[in-house]
UniProtKB/TrEMBL annotation:
Keywords: Cell membrane, Membrane, Transmembrane, Transmembrane helix. It comes from Nocardioides pinisoli. It is a multi-pass membrane protein. The chain crosses the membrane at residues 20-37, 43-61, 118-136. This is Na+/H+ antiporter subunit E. The keyword Membrane applies. Belongs to the CPA3 antiporters (TC 2.A.63) subunit E family. It is found in: Cell membrane. NCBIfam families: PRK08965.1-5.
Length: 186
């Protein structure tokens, strides 16, 4: 992975510097610290901030650029639809288990449109959290997910699952559209 480059006023580039102590990282570490202690006191708050800063200084990470912006309303729609899909799939999996007949499973390949590793990971995670499917392989080079899917009796059912997965990707692309990249200087 290449380092993040910053463009100077004169057109030259230099590696971007990053702060070792990032406020968002400190906040998350503080939340984890307080959750581990199970209490909130002034002493735990001060101690948690100190531990979080120490962790950030000891293990510095570059800032993460997700490469996309956030559209709140479509994102809320993605979350609502995800919850609906989890409930629906749970009922379907329960039906498969209770009907006591042979089940045919399949590995379905889904070629994603996005080239973003972040969105590919998000699609893979959401599909794995929905009962009845799990990612068995993710090919970063071709942006293809291979999912083991429960109760796929024929090719039409496999194609229906593929369409469902691609629809999830499209909803995520509407909620988290990629930021336009600046043209590279020559």
């Amino acid at each position: 992975m290449s380092p993040v480059m910053r463009t100077r006023r004169d057109g030259s580039t230099r590696p971007a510097r990053h702060r070792a102590v990032q406020p968002l990282a400190v906040a998350w570490l503080l939340v984890v610290w307080l959750a581990l202690w199970g209490d909130v006191t002034p002493m735990l708050l001060v101690g948690g901030v100190l531990v979080a800063v120490l962790v950030c200084l000891t293990f510095p990470l570059p800032p993460i650029d997700l490469g996309s912006s956030v559209r709140v309303l479509p994102l809320l729609g993605v979350v609502a639809r995800f919850h609906l899909d989890v409930v629906r799939a749970s009922v379907q999996v329960a039906g498969v288990v209770l009907r006591r007949r042979p089940v045919r499973n399949a590995v379905v390949a889904v070629d994603l449109e996005t080239t973003s590793d972040f969105l590919m990971t998000l699609v893979a995670s959401m599909l794995s959290l929905i009962p009845g499917s799990v990612v068995v392989e993710a090919r970063r080079s071709t942006h293809t997910l291979y999912l083991h899917v429960l109760d796929v009796p024929d090719a039409a059912a496999a194609e229906e699952f593929r369409r469902t997965a691609l629809a999830l990707e499209q909803r995520l692309l509407r909620a988290l559209p990629p930021r336009p990249t600046a043209p590279e200087a020559r």
